[in-house]
């Protein structure tokens, strides 16, 4: 199932409750079918009736078939047709439908679903195209939450729903009450943390839930749509809250004209890692690694920036790092104020001493400070030297640097310091390997395959930081390093100290790449090059991949890249260790390469094609563009259904009616190749953004043309 439909599950409980209201049906369940159909299962008098709702773009077309009590509603229109038109078309189609059992009941259920879903969707853009999660925050339950997540939607004295107006907002610790008042009734809704919930919620949104606290409506009013304020409020929140998000630290209210800075990120340029990679690593440390920072809370908010995926967050690694469940239990914030820093304070020494003398002290402490200490010239190193002299706990100082080259130097120093402080003297064990720069996605499959091939995985380092793996690194007889240049740079000095054989390999994305990966690894260990396809499970995965690949062979993908050094930027050395073009070709996709060309820059398409291995005889193509404003139009006119970038849900792609594909959706290994081809097939089959493009509005709206 594609990422879009996984996200859409956030709406399903609300849709079911919305459709069930104003009805006599005992139970209504809503499922999301792989092709984008919403399937409604309605229970009444021991009988189940099923209604499938599928939207198409070929004009208004409604088909009704009485097949085992099942109706297929195919509707479209720009805007969506009103409920009355849908109901009328259904009634006309029902005249020719043949069902000898319960035609009246089928007509009723079909009319009801059409009326409710028509009202739900009429005039509103789809939830997924309004999905906001750019700035993870810890929500203090105030109007600030609504300013951040639901801008201009819930305002005291202004927000209205039919005869109801928001008359009050009461803020408390852990929940917020929203009072809706009409001439005849008052309804108070409470938004509360789910772990404090004691009653059945109207709808839930991850860690939050919506409940009815006070209700003056009579029973007739509760059933009438003009009084269903909880449906209205739940729908507003469903449109603005993603199904998975992390509530982190609090920010000030944004200005009225605020746009997230990553909205205009240039997704054509390959990004290097910055300090984000260091913080991601700290979030996935083992419990015996303590993290101490003396910075203030705003600087500590860097943790929140990497604890959840943002909508347009630029991909900087090939993996989605897995945060350990208890990471905050071994992270400590001294939270020095500016005055304490300037006047002097012993809080840092007290914090380090307390952490080192707990019942279960960490085996390793990582300390980092803030810019404020450097601005006033405070001697942080002196304080840390005193701690090292009085404690047996190993402590590593990470001096955050703000520019690229010093940052890379700091990462090299960081790994050398950890190795010197923690690694034990061990003899290399034959057949034992350690991985540097391999994410968690394929670790289970990789460990199982290597075990069957007689190879032991002795540890994984970066993006993990596991204390025991560092301690035992010398026991490895071979170091397997991601061929991505970033990984090679940050471990360059540490590997000189380690003095073990090193093999650099691209990440195994795709069937053929996995074959090469295991053959090269086992061959370097001195044995015969292994053939994992002899393993029954691997053979099954390869056969299933070949079958699924046939479903999408010939489909196309748009690749938007800068022309300057295009071959270098698409290589695994820069592309995070992923041999991207080989993987896309193995999926059977034709590649439409769109190159951004600076004024005066000359392009030799034949040379580009040869360098990248493209087939311009009909399978692949190369196009040129000169302005970023052309992107939505070029995407709308392209023959491809999906676009690859390093940016999550870039609005320039959805504005063109295409579905974005990011590196984190691709998966390594044999099993990952099968999951990837199925995921790509589901996106192409659904055509979600193409179907809903006419609903979309956003900052790139002015780039559209009639022709697009």
Please outline the helices and strands:
Layout lengths: L2 H6 L3 H9 L6 E6 L5 E7 L2 E9 L14 E6 L7 H12 L8 H19 L21 H7 L10 E2 L2 E9 L2 E7 L4 E8 L9 E3 L2 E8 L3 H5 L5 H12 L34 H9 L5 E5 L3 H4 L1 H4 L25 E3 L4 H6 L3 H10 L7 E5 L2 H6 L3 H11 L3 E5 L5 H19 L6 E8 L6 H10 L3 E6 L5 H5 L4 E7 L2 H6 L1 H7 L3 E4 L5 H14 L11 H17 L3 E7 L3 H4 L10 H7 L3 E7 L8 H8 L8 E5 L5 H7 L4 E4 L5 H5 L3 E4 L6 H18 L1 H4 L17
Parallel strand pairs: 3-4, 11-12, 11-13, 13-14, 15-16, 15-17, 17-18, 19-20, 19-22, 20-21, 22-23
Antiparallel strand pairs: 1-2, 2-3, 5-6, 6-7, 7-8, 8-10, 9-10
Helix pairs in contact: 3-4, 15-19, 21-27
Number of continuous helical runs: 28
Strand order of the largest sheet: 5-6-7-8-10-9
Whole-angstrom Rg: 29 Å
In helices, the fraction of residues equals: 25-40%
Query: Structural class of the secondary structure composition?
Result: alpha/beta
Distance between the termini: 29 Å
Characterization of this structure:
The chain has 708 residues and is an alpha/beta fold. The protein is built from 28 helices and 23 strands. The radius of gyration is 29 Å and the shape is globular. Mean pLDDT is 77; it is low at 1-8, 56-84, 92-101, 122-140, 243-255, 258-262 and 699-708.
Keyword list:
disordered N terminus, five-stranded parallel sheet, 708 residues, six-stranded antiparallel sheet, alpha/beta, 19% strand, 35% helix
Quick take:
With 708 residues, the chain is α/β, with parallel strands linked by helices.
């Amino acid at each position: 199932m594609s990422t879009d439909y996984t996200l859409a599950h956030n709406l399903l409980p609300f849709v079911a409750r919305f459709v069930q209201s104003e009805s006599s049906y005992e139970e209504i369940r809503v499922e999301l079918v792989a092709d984008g159909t919403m399937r409604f299962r309605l229970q009444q008098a021991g009988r189940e009736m099923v209604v499938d709702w599928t939207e198409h773009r070929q004009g208004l077309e409604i088909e009704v078939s009485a097949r085992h009590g099942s109706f297929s509603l195919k509707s479209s229109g720009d805007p969506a047709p009103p409920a009355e038109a849908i109901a009328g078309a259904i009634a006309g189609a029902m005249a020719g439908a043949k069902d000898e059992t319960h035609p009246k009941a089928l007509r009723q259920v079909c009319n009801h679903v059409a009326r409710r879903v028509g009202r739900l969707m009429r005039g509103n853009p789809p939830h997924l195209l309004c999905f906001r999660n750019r700035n993870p925050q810890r929500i203090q339950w105030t109007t600030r939450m609504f300013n951040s997540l639901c801008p201009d939607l819930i305002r005291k004295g202004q927000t209205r729903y039919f005869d109801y107006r928001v008359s009050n907002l009461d803020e408390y610790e852990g929940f917020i009450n929203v009072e809706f008042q009409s001439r005849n009734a008052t309804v108070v809704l409470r938004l509360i943390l789910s772990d404090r919930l004691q009653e059945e919620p109207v709808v839930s949104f991850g860690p939050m839930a919506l409940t009815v606290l006070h209700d003056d409506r009579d029973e007739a009013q509760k059933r009438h749509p003009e009084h269903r304020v909880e449906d209205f409020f739940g729908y507003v929140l469903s449109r603005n809250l993603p199904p998975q998000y992390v509530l982190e630290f609090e920010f000030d209210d944004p200005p009225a004209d605020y746009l997230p800075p990553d909205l205009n990120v240039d997704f054509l340029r390959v990004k290097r890692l910055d300090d984000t990679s260091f913080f991601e690593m700290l979030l996935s440390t083992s419990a015996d690694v303590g993290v101490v920072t003396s910075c203030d809370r705003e600087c500590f908010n860097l943790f929140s920036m990497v604890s959840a995926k943002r909508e347009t967050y630029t991909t900087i690694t090939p993996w989605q790092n897995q945060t350990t469940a208890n990471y905050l239990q071994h992270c400590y914030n001294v939270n020095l104020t500016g005055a304490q820093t300037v006047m002097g304070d012993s809080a840092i020494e007290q914090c380090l001493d307390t952490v080192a003398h707990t019942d279960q002290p960490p085996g390793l402490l990582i300390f980092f400070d803030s810019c404020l200490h450097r601005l006033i010239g405070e001697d942080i190193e002196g304080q840390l030297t005193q701690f090292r002299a009085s404690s047996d706990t190993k402590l590593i100082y990470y001096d955050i640097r703000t520019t690229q080259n010093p940052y890379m130097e700091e990462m090299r120093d960081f790994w050398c310091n950890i190795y010197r402080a923690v690694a034990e003297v061990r003899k290399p064990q034959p057949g034992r390997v350690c991985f540097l720069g391999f994410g968690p996605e394929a670790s289970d499959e990789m460990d199982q395959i290597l075990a069957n091939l007689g190879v032991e995985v002795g540890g994984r380092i970066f993006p993990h930081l596991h204390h025991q793996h560092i301690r035992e690194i010398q026991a490895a007889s071979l170091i397997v390093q991601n061929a991505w240049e970033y990984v090679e740079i940050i471990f360059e000095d540490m590997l000189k100290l380690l003095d073990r054989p090193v093999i650099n390999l691209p990440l195994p994305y795709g069937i053929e790449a996995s074959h090469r990966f295991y053959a090269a690894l086992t061959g370097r260990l001195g044995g015969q090059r292994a053939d994992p396809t002899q393993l029954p499970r691997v053979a099954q995965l390869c056969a299933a991949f070949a079958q699924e690949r046939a479903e999408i062979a010939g489909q196309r993908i748009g690749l938007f890249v800068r022309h300057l050094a295009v071959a270098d930027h698409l290589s695994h050395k820069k592309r995070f260790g992923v041999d991207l073009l080989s993987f896309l070709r193995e999926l059977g996709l034709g590649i439409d390469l769109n190159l951004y060309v600076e004024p005066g820059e000359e392009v030799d398409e034949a040379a580009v094609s040869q360098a990248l291995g493209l087939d311009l005889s009909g399978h692949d193509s190369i196009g040129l563009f000169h302005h970023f404003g052309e992107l939505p139009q070029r995407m709308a006119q392209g023959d491809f259904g999906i676009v690859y970038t390093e940016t999550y849900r870039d609005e320039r792609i959805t504005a063109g009616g295409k579905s974005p594909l990011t590196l984190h959706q691709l998966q390594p290994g044999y099993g990952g190749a099968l999951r990837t081809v199925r995921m790509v097939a589901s996106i192409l089959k659904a055509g979600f953004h193409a179907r809903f493009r006419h609903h979309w509005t956003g900052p790139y709206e002015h780039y559209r043309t009639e022709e697009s």
